[in-house]
């Protein structure tokens, strides 16, 4: 039986490995580089290397994440490509990024806010303010490495929400942004399964040493792929060139055998981490992401280094409702509510908000207890008191909301201008409500496409999650990563079985036969 399984396992390992060679190489290489965004933050990919769907049309693909109209009629749009300005009521927008980071990766803007006649801009990395000579300058050196997700004005100052904490600058004081102590009143802190799987997949759960270890295994996967192809190809070539009746030379194939020997050994020793990478990767993309999207474990079971800050990289959006004396935070591990004047003691919000798993892109108060919420799941009105959900694009009541299923209109922003209402969407771009028709008034500048580049980190992320292949294989791209992860798992298991069979079972049989021969002699 063991020999029969070995034959099947050997066949599976050989042909599954050959089939996966290119997949494993580009996934491993992209994964290694994604683990260290700071090293490649200054690099971008020219637009011609990307499929047509990555071209921007009608302000789509997250080009608009926020809107601000100034007192003199100036319009500012902010999003993935930084800030765009119009001095002519929406016509002739031009790039307005002077003073912002040179690395395109960190140019993504999340929030524009006007406070006491000063325009503030929250970026992927850092908080900036607009000077009198129309230049951006850092507004808070202490927040230079923070992802700024939202800002709110209060009667006493400016509240800034980063992905990892809350900061406040009083209107009368030193001008510094001071961290606020935000408590979480829960029986036990928990870690979402999404966070667990992502951190284990990258090795970051063990800190930098863990990332470097998983990088090394990624490099090993590349070498295993190359060595497997070399061994297979060499044997094919040798078979084609061998003349009938002529034996191979004494040293023929020595290097190939050496390569194969270390292919087997190194693969076996690295198999545990490869299996971890494959298993976690299987659940990191839809549709199987849905199986872990709402799960969590107590933080004490986290198998590695856990940041003591419970908000670390979890805050996605937030809003202060001063009329109700409340502050609401939406995050990767749930939604949290606190009294603004009660030392910010947050408790989990009992109601499930209609927010897509990637977070809320729109979060505004319509009236006390009534919220306007937008995300890749659509645009909704939510009644906090009764839990009622109304779809603002169809005006229909919603009985159920799926947080992992994107909507037809994936909303990135909503704003009003001159008694008109607009939404920006990921695919269709800028649309006017309620008809959901494109808006000709806000002319998109040609330079968005003519000078189009894409941050290398984002490019590698699109490659790693398979989305870049959508133009070529359609909706099947969604199965590329989980299918590849499943095959990698089977490939590793079969290779490990083959190694164990040859190293122990065949070795045992060989020793047993030698023992029998010695007795017979």
Describe, in short, the structure shown.
With 521 residues, this protein is of the alpha+beta class. The protein has helices at 2-34, 37-40, 193-202, 207-241, 254-269, 271-282, 447-450, 456-464, 470-473, 480-520; strands at residues 44-46, 66-69, 75-79, 82-86, 94-95, 109-115, 118-123, 127-130, 136-138, 148-154, 157-162, 166-170, 178-180, 183-184, 190-192, 296-298, 315-321, 326-331, 334-339, 345-348, 362-367, 370-375, 378-383, 389-391, 396-398, 411-417, 420-425, 429-433, 437-438, 453-455.
Question: What kind of sheet is the major sheet?
Answer: 5 strands, mixed
N-C termini distance: 31 Å
- Beta-strand portion reads 25-35%
Molecular shape: elongated
Which oligomerization state do the chains in this entry correspond to? Answer: single chain
Q: Provide the residue-averaged pLDDT.
A: 91
Low-confidence stretches: none
Q: Fraction of residues in helices?
A: 25-40%
Number of helices: 10
């Amino acid at each position: 039986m063991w020999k029969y399984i070995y034959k099947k396992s050997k066949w599976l390992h050989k042909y599954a490995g050959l089939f996966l060679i290119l997949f494993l190489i580009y996934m491993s290489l992209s994964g290694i580089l994604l683990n260290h965004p700071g090293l490649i933050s200054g690099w971008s990919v020219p637009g011609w290397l990307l499929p047509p769907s990555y071209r921007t049309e009608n302000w789509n693909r997250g080009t608009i994440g926020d809107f601000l109209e100034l007192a003199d009629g100036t319009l500012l749009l902010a999003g993935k490509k930084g800030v765009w300005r119009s001095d002519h009521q929406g016509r002739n927008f031009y790039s307005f990024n002077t003073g912002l980071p040179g690395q395109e990766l960190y140019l993504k803007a999340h929030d524009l806010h006007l406070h006491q006649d000063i325009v503030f801009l929250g970026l992927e990395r850092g908080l900036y303010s607009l000077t009198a000579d129309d230049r951006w300058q850092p507004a808070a050196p202490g927040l230079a490495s923070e992802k700024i997700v939202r800002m709110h004005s209060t009667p006493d100052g400016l509240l800034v929400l980063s992905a990892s904490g809350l900061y406040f600058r009083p209107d009368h004081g030193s001008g510094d942004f001071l961290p606020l102590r935000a408590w979480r009143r829960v029986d036990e802190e928990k870690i979402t399964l999404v966070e667990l799987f992502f951190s284990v997949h990258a090795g970051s759960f063990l800190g930098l040493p863990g990332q470097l270890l998983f990088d090394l295994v990624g490099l090993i996967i590349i070498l295993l792929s190359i060595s497997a192809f070399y061994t297979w190809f060499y044997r094919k070539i040798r078979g084609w060139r061998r003349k009938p009746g002529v034996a191979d030379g004494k040293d023929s194939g020595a290097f190939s055998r050496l390569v194969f020997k270390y292919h087997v050994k190194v693969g076996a020793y690295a198999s545990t981490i490869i299996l971890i990478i494959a298993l976690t990767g299987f659940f990191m993309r839809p549709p199987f992401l849905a199986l872990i999207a709402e799960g969590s474990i107590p933080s004490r079971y986290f198998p590695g280094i856990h940041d003591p800050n419970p908000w670390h990289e979890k805050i996605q959006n937030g809003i202060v409702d001063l009329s109700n004396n409340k502050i609401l935070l939406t995050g990767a591990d749930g939604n949290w509510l606190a009294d603004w004047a009660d030392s910010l003691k947050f408790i989990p919000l009992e109601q499930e908000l209609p927010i897509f798993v990637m977070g809320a892109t729109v979060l505004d108060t319509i009236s006390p207890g009534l919220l306007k919420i937008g995300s890749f799941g659509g645009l909704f009105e939510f009644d906090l008191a009764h839990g009622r959900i109304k779809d603002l694009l169809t005006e229909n009541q919603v009985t159920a909301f799926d947080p992992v299923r994107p909507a037809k209109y994936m909303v990135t922003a909503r704003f009003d201008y001159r008694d008109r209402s607009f939404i920006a969407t990921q695919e269709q771009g800028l649309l006017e409500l309620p008809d959901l028709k494109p808006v000709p008034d806000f002319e998109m500048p040609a330079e968005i496409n003519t000078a189009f580049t894409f941050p290398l980190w984002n490019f590698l992320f699109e490659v790693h999650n398979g989305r870049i292949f959508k133009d070529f294989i359609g909706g099947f791209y969604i199965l590329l990563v989980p299918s590849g992860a499943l095959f990698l798992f089977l490939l590793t298991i079969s290779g490990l079985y083959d190694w164990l069979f040859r190293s122990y079972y065949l070795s045992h049989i060989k020793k047993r036969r030698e023992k029998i021969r010695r007795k017979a002699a």
